[in-house]
Amino acid sequence: MYKLNFELVPDGCWYQNLRSALPQAVWDSIRKTAYAKAKGKCMICERKTARLEAHERWSYDEERALQKLETVIAVCRNCHEVIHVGVATTLWSGL
Ligand SMILES: [Zn+2]
Q1: Residues within 5 Å of ion ligand 1, judged at the Cβ atom
Q2: pTM strictly above 0.85
Q3: Quick one: which of 1, 27, 54, 87 has the fewest CB in 10 Å?
């Protein structure tokens, strides 16, 4: 298992995330907890960065149509874009 992987999302879950599903204060608490654990470094590539992003790791049971939040980690923008290569590709194709 590599630290950095493409994490493809089932199409029924596209464009949905905790940030938009939770009250702002709750999401802020979750992401700030991840940032505190990261101590200013991306939790994947371990480079120091002034700007961390919160990445939600989900597991999917497509047979039962279940989506489960496994964890939220703090990552740099570059790693986040690689993880969500499907989103990046969709955005780039619209340019
Ligand atoms: Zn990184």
Answers
A1: 42, 44-45, 76, 79
A2: no
A3: 1
